[in-house]
Amino acid sequence: MSTQLDVIPLAKPVIGEPEEQAVLEVLRSGHLSLGPRVPAFESAFAERVGARHASAVSSGTTGLHLALRAVGVEAGDEVVTSPFSFVATANAALYEGARPVFADIDPVTFCVDPAAAAAAITERTRALLPVHIFGYPADMAALERHGLPIVEDAAEALGARYADGGAVGGRGHPAIFGFYANKQMTTGEGGLIALGSAEQKERIDSERNQGRAPDMGWLDHDRLGFNYRLSDIACALGIAQLERLDDMLAARVRVAGWYRAALAGLASEHGLTLPCEDADGAVRGWFVFVVQLPVGVDRDATVLALRDHGVQSKPYLPAIHLMSFYRERFGHRRGELPVCERVADSSIALPFFPQMTEAQVERVADALAQVIAA
Ligand SMILES: Cc1ncc(COP(=O)(O)O)c(C=O)c1O
Question: Do residues 203 and 57 make contact, with C-beta atoms less than 8 angstroms apart?
Fold first, then answer.
């Protein structure tokens, strides 16, 4: 068994001198919130993804909530989304009293299947909420044909490109990014909505700040709001991370390439499924390295066995509709969304971060080969 020191973690942020300096400057300025770093971070990020506007918020989750409100989702509405996502995607609709309606996923990309989404649309559907899962862009052109408002969950997809070559986040629909510490870039906790509409930005900026209009006094509030602000400390961290984003993304691409090579034998001879290759012009923004175990290999036992080899891993992602809260609230049952369920049952996230070495990737691959063979 490996010693504690040998453990390969699942994820690890790249934090160094530039981030330390950026945060220190804010601390010394005394302007810790509602200061100049917020618009500076927003403009830099908007430029990066080719969006007209951006609103920084306290998390990807709060970004989803405000974006759904901004496109008009209200109590009693339906929001068509993917069951194969982090639970926050569906929860955001529930915050407004809307119902998340799950459409099954594409068996290759794991994003929502456009035909299943089309079949799930009713007269109560107010918005579509596709998820660019594991950084792979959903088929936006197919979803846009319905003419419904769209909110993109791009929390995992920084650096990705749509099939038409545009950067994810620059399509005009509100697109939500997340900056938790395992993401392509981090602000500790944080999120951002990239969007094309100035009106929607105005509403979002007010609602993230307690419903306060920009030209009003502190104590006047002309609508319901929240405290979903991102601090200047976090935004300074975000600006520093954006400056090295190209390097961090390139490192993720390199690590993914090592994984593909190291796991090729397990894939071709033992039925391990690797992340789908980029196709039809779409480009993945590498976030996690998730594989599907061969039929008959117990996923949860694999996680435990990998731990004994000093390799962290986790079941990723469980199907949202089968979580106990969703089952109890909506009566969902196994068998409703078979593609998602099959993929979710066999998926496991392996260690994946920019500083990972080729030797570490090989150690993970060796450990996985031993566990699968056992
Ligand atoms: C697909 C997806 N949506 C939403 C979120 C929520 O983001 P946050 O954790 O910043 O609230 C995450 C984060 O893990 C995510 O992966």
Answer: no
| Pick from 112, 128, 248: nearest CA to 179 | 248
**Protein residue with its CA nearest to atom 14 in ligand 1:** 86
Among 16, 12, 17, 5, CA closest to 356? 12
Of all atoms in ligand 1, which is nearest to the CA of residue 191? 10
How far, in Å, is the centroid of ligand 1 from the Cα of 62? 10
d(CA 302, CA 272): 13
The answer to whether the beta carbons of residues 348 and 291 sit under 8 Å apart is yes
Helix axes 232-243, 37-49, angle to 10 degrees: 30
Tell me phi and psi for residue 41, to 5 degrees. Answer: -65, -45
Q: Dmax of the chain from CA atoms?
A: 67
CB burial of 34-49 (b: ≥16 within 10 Å; e: otherwise) equals: ebebbebbbebbbebb
What spacing in Å lies between the alpha carbon of 88 and ligand 1's midpoint?
6
DSSP 8-state secondary structure symbol assigned to residue 138: P
User: Do the strands 191-195 and 175-178 form a parallel or antiparallel pair, or are they unpaired?
Assistant: antiparallel
- What is the C-alpha separation between 304 and 330, in angstroms, rounded? 32
Nearest to 51 by CA among 152, 119, 121: 152
Condensed to tens digits (0 to 9), the pLDDT of residues 178-191 reads 999 999 999 999 99
Residue minimizing CA distance to atom 8 of ligand 1: 60
Q: Ligand 1: residues within 6 Å at CB?
A: 59-61, 85-86, 88-89, 131, 153, 155-156, 178, 180, 191
Which residue in 233, 174, 238 sits closest to 205, CA to CA? 174
E-strand ranges in the chain read 53-57, 78-81, 99-102, 125-129, 152-153, 175-178, 191-195, 289-292, 314-315, 347-350
pTM exceeds 0.70, yes or no:
yes
CA-based R_g, the chain, Å: 21
pLDDT in tens, 43-94: 999 999 999 999 999 999 999 999 999 999 999 999 999 999 999 999 999 9
Two structure tokens written together for 188: 């500790």
233 within 8 A of 83, measured Cβ to Cβ: no
Tokens of 275: 């992340």
